[in-house]
């Protein structure tokens, strides 16, 4: 297993990094018997802007420049051939050979990055990641929203039924047990949604259409492994808190502890919060690595740590900002339904003496309103957050492994060696690159 697994079409392996740059033109040795450079006479004066060229025109580049800090493509400083063989530096013609106004030449710099799908194939900023996530949901709304709506509807229905049972039987613990019993179902549904949405985003990046049946066929072989990754991640983070809570549990079991002792046992819990957060970000890319690279469980966990290494704060910042943005959107959408539920839920004395009724109960009208609002919120937020995580994973691989070159080839971009033209909807013509 290497640190740079392929995410490219079968039969089109990713070349080494050294092969990504232009083929160097070997220097031509002087023929035998030729006079040394010093004997060839004084050097010819540098040609001015009006001096015609006496030699052949510069040949167009034979390949792409080696990926630099941003793994883009462009030209090296100096009067080098630019885009499509046109010189693009200094006083030479710019984009397509046309100089810009006022002596400015648009050819100065790299050409725009290809964008076959929802993101440009280059390192991304936070706004581009969020825009790509929203664009994915908008372009593939039938698959993305249909999938998230089905998952959210099942989760909210089960939760509402359990809470209604708690409302009808406020003095028994059975309804609360039923409420917590819905979490395993939600866990399974969340795994299915995450796996299928990951495949939707991978196709959206390449600009390809997709259907629910196609993404199910792609994701199904990895869903059991995805469940293992999700369970192990939850177990690792939960284990940190369990160890931190052990002193508090021991003190409470000992009986009648003083307030100072209880406060002291909370210190390990506070220390566990940053540790759990650090581990969560370290394992943030386990699911995309497992689904898109067809990895095993332990390999996907190790792969995520390698991708995050050195970029923890950036991954954390983008994840936090996306959660805040989506959280604000969720509050705006859910607030009307919460208000309606409060209006439809007068004070009910039947659950006043039961902690279970206060915890989980509610009248049917209120529960129905909250369930409708929760379903609508989850339908929108589930695919957006999943897409942000996958696009952030792709961005990290572009920055570290020049994945943009492989994606451009898979999308059929001709400049990168792709041969399959794409239609107006981004569909790949027959005979094009195979599915990733």
From TrEMBL:
Lineage: superkingdom: Bacteria
Residue ranges, annotated region (Disordered): 1-116, 416-436
Biased composition (Low complexity): 18-41
Domain DUF7847, residue spans: 153-387
Keywords: Membrane, Transmembrane, Transmembrane helix
InterPro entries: DUF7847
A Pfam family per the record: DUF7847
Amino acid composition bias (Gly residues), ranges on this chain: 85-106
Transmembrane segments annotated in the record for this chain: 144-167, 187-206, 226-255, 261-281, 312-345, 365-394
UniProt name for this protein: Glycerophosphoryl diester phosphodiesterase membrane domain-containing protein
């Amino acid at each position: 297993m290497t640190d740079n697994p392929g995410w490219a079409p079968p039969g089109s392996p990713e070349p080494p990094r050294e092969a990504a740059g232009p083929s160097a033109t070997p220097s031509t040795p002087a023929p035998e018997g030729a006079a040394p450079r010093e004997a060839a006479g004084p050097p010819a004066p540098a040609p001015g802007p009006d001096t015609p060229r006496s030699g052949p025109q510069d040949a167009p580049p034979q390949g792409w420049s080696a990926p630099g800090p941003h793994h883009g493509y462009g030209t090296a400083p100096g009067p080098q051939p630019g885009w499509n063989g046109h010189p693009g530096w200094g006083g030479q013609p710019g984009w397509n050979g046309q100089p810009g106004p006022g002596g400015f030449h648009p050819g100065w710099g790299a050409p725009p990055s290809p964008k076959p799908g929802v993101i440009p194939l280059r390192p991304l900023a936070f706004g581009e990641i969020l825009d790509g996530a929203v664009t994915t949901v908008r372009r593939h709304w039938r698959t993305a929203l249909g999938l998230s709506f089905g998952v959210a509807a099942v989760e909210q229905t089960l939760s509402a039924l359990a809470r209604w049972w708690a409302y009808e039987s406020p003095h028994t613990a059975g309804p609360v047990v039923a409420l917590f019993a819905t979490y395993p179902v939600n866990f399974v549904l969340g795994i299915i949604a995450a796996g299928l949405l990951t495949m939707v985003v991978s196709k959206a990046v390449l600009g390809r259409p997709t259907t629910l049946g196609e993404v199910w066929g792609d994701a199904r072989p990895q869903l059991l492994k995805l469940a293992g990754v999700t369970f192990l991640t939850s177990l690792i983070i939960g284990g940190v808190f369990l160890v931190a809570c052990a002193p508090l549990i021991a003190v409470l079991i000992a009986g009648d502890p003083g307030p100072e002792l209880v406060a002291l046992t909370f210190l390990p819990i506070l220390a566990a919060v940053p540790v759990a957060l650090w581990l969560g970000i370290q394992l943030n890319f386990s699911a995309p690595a497992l689904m898109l690279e067809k990895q095993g469980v332990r390999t996907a966990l190790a792969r995520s740590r390698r991708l995050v290494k050195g970029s923890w704060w950036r991954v954390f910042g983008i994840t936090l900002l996306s959660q805040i943005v989506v959280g604000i959107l969720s509050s705006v959408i859910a607030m009307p339904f919460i208000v309606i539920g409060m209006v439809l839920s007068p004070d009910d004395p039947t659950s006043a003496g039961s902690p279970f009724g206060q915890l989980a109960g509610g009248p049917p009208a209120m529960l129905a309103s909250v369930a409708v609002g929760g379903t609508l919120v989850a339908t929108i937020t589930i695919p957006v957050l999943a897409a942000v995580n996958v696009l952030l994973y792709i961005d990290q691989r572009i920055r570290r492994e020049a994945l943009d070159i492989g994606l451009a080839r898979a999308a059929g971009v001709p400049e990168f060696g792709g041969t399959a033209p794409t239609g107006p909807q981004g569909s790949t013509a027959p005979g094009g690159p195979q599915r990733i």
